[in-house]
Amino acid sequence: MWRPQPSAGGRVGIGAAAASLLVALAAGWWVTQQPIGLGLFVGLLLAVASLALSILFALWTLGYYTLHYVLAPDGMHVVWLFREDVIPYRAVSALYAGHRLSEPPRVRGVVWPGNYVGRARVRNFGVLTVFATTLERSELTILLTDLGGYVLSAPAEFRTALVERLEAAREDTLPAAGRAGAVRTSLSRAAADRWLVVCLGGALLLLLGMLGAIIARYESLPELLALQLDPLGQPIAMRSRFELFSLPGIGAVVLLVDVALGMLLYEREVLAARLVWTAPVLVQLALATALLRTLLGPP
Question: Where along the chain do its domains lie?
Answer without folding.
Answer: 69-184, 185-299
